[in-house]
Amino acid sequence: MSNEKFLIYLLVMAGVTYLVRMIPMVLLKKKIKNRFVISFLHYIPYAVLSAMTIPACFYATDSPVTAAVGFIVAVVASLFERSLVQVAALSCLGVLATELIMKFI
Amino acid sequence: MTEINSFKKGLKDGLPICIGYFSVAFAFGIFATENGLTVFQATILSLTNLTSAGQLAAVPIITGGGSLAELALSQIVINSRYSLMSVSLSQKFSPDVKLKDKLYISYANTDEIFAVSISQKGEIGKKYMLGLMIPPMVGWTTGTLAGALAGNILPAMVTAALGLAIYGMFIAIVVPVAKKEKATALCVFISVVLSCVFRYVPLLNKVPSGFTVIICAVVSAGILALVAPVKADEEVTENE
User: Fold this and answer.
1) Does the residue A17 lie in any domain?
2) Which of B31, B86, B103, B203 has a Cα at 20 to 30 A from A64?
3) Number of domains composing chain A
4) Is residue A20 part of a domain?
C-alpha cells in the first residue's frame, strides 16, 4: 500500500499504543485496587491471543491441512512446556513436512 | 532501599529479551509483507509500536482498508494490560525518574521489559531503564526487517510454513497457562467459540477483524473476571 495512506494508520496506531502505556505511568499514583479491573486485565491477553489464533491460524499456510498439523504440533509442544521459539519452529517444521508429503501423494 | 541505576546492567539484562524478540519479530516481518505491507512499513510499524499481538491484529486492518476507529479500539483492548503494568512500574522507580523520563520509558513497557524491571531488588533509576529498553527495541525492529526481507527471498513453500510461526508462539503463551488455570482455559474456550462464530456465521462474518477480536476478548475476559476474579495480590505477571 502507499506510504501516504500507511502513515495515517501508523500515527493513529502508534499514538494509541503509546498513550495506553504512558497515561497510567504518568498520572496514576496509586495501585489499581478494583478486583474486576485487575481480573479483567489478567484474562485479556489469553482471550486476545486465542481469538486471534483460532480459526485464523488454519488459513495461515497454503492449506488448512498443513496448518492443522502445525497447530497440533504447537499445542502438543506447548503442553510439554517448550519455549516460544521451540514451539514456533516445531510447528513450522510440521507444516513443511506435511507440505512435502502432500506433494508426493 | 537500594537503587539500581547502571546503564550497563540494563543493557546486559535486556540482551536475552533482544534475542527472543528477534525471532518473534522475524515471524511478524514475514506475516506483514505476505499481507501486503512493504519492508519499510513493516519495520517502522515495529519500531514505533513494540507490541506483538497488537501489530498482528493491525496488519489486516491496515492492508484491508479498515477504519481508523477499528484500528484504535483494537489497540486499546489488546494493549490494555500495559496500563496496569505501567502503574506498577511507576511505583518501582527511584525519585531520579522524572516526568520527562516516564515519557520515553513508558513507550517501551512491554511484557518482558516489565517483568525484568519489576523483579529487580530495590528501586530502579532511569539509566537502568534506558539500558534495558535498547536491546529489545533493536531486536524487535531488526528482526522485523530481517523477516520482511527473508519473506521476499525464501521459497514460497518455506514462507507458507513460516506463516504459522507467530501463531505457534501465541499457542506457546496460552496453552501452559490454560493447562494450569481452569479459569483461563474456560476464558480461552469462550473466546475461541466466539471467534469461530464471527468467522463462519453469515452476517456476523461481515464484522471487521479488529472488532471481532475486541468483542471476543472483552466478552470472555469480562465473564471470567466476574465468575472467577483473581486475588488482588496476584496482579500482573509475565504474560508474553
Assistant:
1) no
2) B203
3) 1
4) no
